[in-house]
Design brief:
alpha/beta; Rossmann fold; four-stranded antiparallel beta sheet; about 250 residues; Methionyl-trna Synthetase, domain 2
């Protein structure tokens, strides 16, 4: 009889600096759940890893006089040493610089583009470099980033966009039909209100920096975090590769 499967993942961490107690807390908690599920007889896949692209990495590497890849290699090694020291039992460690992930991301991007789900446009907005986030005027707090409180700068650039706005009704229907899909309830209600307030299409490429996965049919663009880092949870399972048996 086949075992029941259980997939658990930490967020993948951004290696712009050394790992800290927050990284350890989350990873140890995930490790405890993974070990418990194994004891219950589940076939567990426990993933962790690092989100290694972006402007902040590029800037930090330039400050230290190294390439972005050399910079992340060094910082990621620190994460891996810490997980070994803490005896973390992850089954896989994904890096968004892994060749298989980059290939899968390019495939996902092209598929969405070919289906008309991604289009080219122009992005204008307030940008926080440390958070790598765009904000509207109304989202700013006292003219600063609402997440970290740092200064923002006005940015304009050509970009590709994912048609997220067209999925608002479908998402609301999903949450209604599957009330346990998002937990706890406080987060579910927060998400529902966020969607009802109006979804904007999502910026999924950048041209203002080069440290990222190139859009293979338009290489002056690199894939932005939403279709790079956030797809790792399926590419780590083989999605978009020749062997996607774990994903299936």
């Amino acid at each position: 009889m086949d075992k029941k499967t259980f997939y658990i993942t930490t967020p993948i961490y951004y290696p712009s600096g050394k790992p800290h107690i927050g990284h350890s807390y989350c990873t140890v908690a995930s490790d405890a759940i993974a070990r418990y599920k194994r004891l219950q007889g589940y076939d567990v896949m426990f993933l962790t890893g690092t989100d290694e692209h972006g402007q902040k990495i590029e800037i930090n590497a330039e400050k230290e006089g190294v390439t972005p890849k050399e910079y992340v290699d060094r910082v990621v090694a620190g994460f891996q040493r810490l997980w070994k020291l803490l005896d973390i039992s992850n089954d896989r460690f994904i890096r968004t610089t892994d060749a298989y992930h980059e290939k899968a991301v390019q495939k996902i991007f092209r598929t969405l583009y070919d289906k008309g789900e991604i289009y080219k446009g122009k992005y204008e907005g307030w940008y926080c470099t440390p958070c790598e986030s765009f904000w509207t005027e109304t989202q700013l707090k006292d003219g600063k980033c609402p997440d970290c409180g740092r200064e923002v700068k006005w940015a304009e650039e050509e970009a590709y966009f994912f048609r997220l706005s067209k999925y608002a009704d479908r998402l609301l229907k999903l949450y209604e039909d599957h009330p346990d899909f998002i937990q706890p309830d406080s987060r579910k209600h927060e998400m529902i209100q966020f969607i009802k307030s109006g979804l904007n299409d999502l910026c999924v490429s950048r041209t203002s920096f080069s440290w990222g996965i190139p859009v293979d049919f338009d290489p002056k663009h690199v894939v932005y975090v939403w279709l790079d880092a956030l797809t790792n949870y399926i590419t780590a399972m083989g999605y978009g590769s020749d062997d996607d048996s774990d994903y299936r």
